[in-house]
Amino acid sequence: MPSFQDRNRAKRVDPTKASRQQNNERSTLIDRVLQALEVNPTPQETAAQTAARIAEPEVPPTRANLIDRVLARLRGDDAPAQTIAAGFKAVAENDQTVIGRTASATAKIIEGSKEVSDAIERAVSGETQPPQRTELENAVDQLRSNYRDKLRGIAEQLQAGDITHANFRYMMGKEVKKLLTQAAVLGAGGQANMTDTQRKLLDRSVRDQLAYLDGFHRDIRELINQGKPIPNRMIGRAGSYASAAMITANQARRQSMADEVAQDDADLWEVRVLGAAEHCVDCVRYANRPAPIGTLPPIGDSQCGSNCKCQFEYGSREDLERKYGKGSS
């Protein structure tokens, strides 16, 4: 007969193992719901898939991937919450395990809560508006700061001899792609908002930055071939690639606004606003001049290039001209 101590030990649950089991059950439930929906997926690539393709070519299946597959199948559904609830019910009908019981309980929650139903509809359709100027600026500033440290760290590894110049180019390219993808998603207001045009803008931004990176890599390779050490200024140069995040985010946000005007004939104008920096002549000339969306030079096309700290602000012509003065018509 087992001792009290043995019986007590048998009752203990490894928290790590329990958490892993719970995550597996959730992923299985989501996958089962996906199968139960029996809806053909849309042929258009989702924004999350595009982000994965650009930033991480071989992303392993995760719970988040499953959720995105469910949302992708519901795009265009008139009643996505009801469809999801029906999927959970279908899972629960022939499953008496914890997965079936969870599915049944979840279906009841969806059907009985308008708040949950609304949340599902928002998740399917994406945010209806890109972030406001200050919100975007704060979010991208944090993103830019994080990646500046990452990129400088890669250059410091090269300087210390911990990686080769080929490794440096690969690692830098990978991080730059991830940075720009996240910036574009921020500018669009979420993955679900990404359009074909915004994906093309993102691809172009990535190609441009990788072309600049190739030039940087050639300079470094030349130093190494000459037997010269990597100077500290190269560390700062590596970190400067993070500056492209704001330009990419602004492109995505501006395209969202242009799409809104095209679809709904919305009364939206744009104005370039100076940030906290020493500005080039171009930025000063185009600042505080409200104009129809798409008519002002894009951020990054000025003399200051990727170092530009300007932002676009959007609103009705009346509101912008009241705040900034008369612009162009």
Structure description:
With 329 residues, the protein is mainly alpha-helical. It folds into three domains: 4-125, no CATH class; 130-250, no CATH class; 267-329, no CATH class. Helix content is 66%, strand content 4%. The protein is built from 14 helices and three strands. It has helices spanning 4-11, 15-37, 47-55, 63-74, 80-93, 98-112, 114-125, 133-159, 165-188, 196-225, 233-239, 244-264, 281-286, 317-324, and strands at residues 269-273, 291-292, 311-315. A three-stranded antiparallel sheet has the order 2-1-3.
Spatial arrangement of strands, main beta sheet: 2-1-3
Shape: flat
**Main beta sheet, described?**
3 strands, antiparallel
Question: What structural class do you assign from the helix and strand content?
Answer: mainly alpha
Number of strands: 3
**Percent helix:** 55-70%
Tell me the span between the first and last alpha carbons: 91 Å
User: What percent strand?
Assistant: under 5%
DSSP helical segment count:
14
Low-pLDDT windows of residues? 1-20, 38-65
Average of pLDDT:
77
Secondary-structure element order, N to C? HHHHHHHHHHHHEHEEH
Radius of gyration, in angstroms, nearest whole number: 25 Å
Number of domains: 3
